[in-house]
Task: structure prediction
Amino acid sequence: MNLPYNREGELREKFNQFISDKITGTTEDYYSQLSVEDFEDIKTTLKDIHNIITYKTTIRFIDWVSHRFPYVKQNYQVYLEQVLGTKPSDNGYDLIVTGEVNIVAEIKCNKPINNGYKFGSAQKNGIIKDIRGLLEGKSKVKSIDPTAAFKFLVIYDFGDHTLMAIQNLIKNLPTALKEKVLIHEEASPLMVDKVHVVFIK
Result:
């Protein structure tokens, strides 16, 4: 005989399982220990999850860049501190390198909608806006001329879905923009007149 659906039971099980698997490693009824106010505090804290993913992806991209540009490797700490000192609400680039080599990068951590192979409308608009910003510059960034810089659109790699979603987005860009966006391959040279899409895991 099937038991009737219990909404709270399902919520409790999912919450407890997540906390146990991802955080504590101990099986307990965490759900019952928390008040509504506690859950509200958790909800507020989780609003920063996207910023955490973006920050961690940016750090990994600095590592990626430092293996390809000796100047960045020599000044690794400078660019690490730049990222640490940048607020999530900043309207500039996620990474700026100036000196012997000039680099601008935007970091995107968009997961294709419904675990599918396309980005949602708002996600696409955000990515296209960043591509234009890499190519044309940003009004609030005066320290670098992006036309003379290596340009990177850095995508957190959620797997094959991410690659296919980016391919689909590029395919549907206006022709003038499409010609300036390349998915980076290790054997391919980096060019300052292109936006190179790099996947970081």
Remarks:
- The domain at 49-200 is CATH 3.40.1350 (Trna Endonuclease; Chain: A, domain 1).
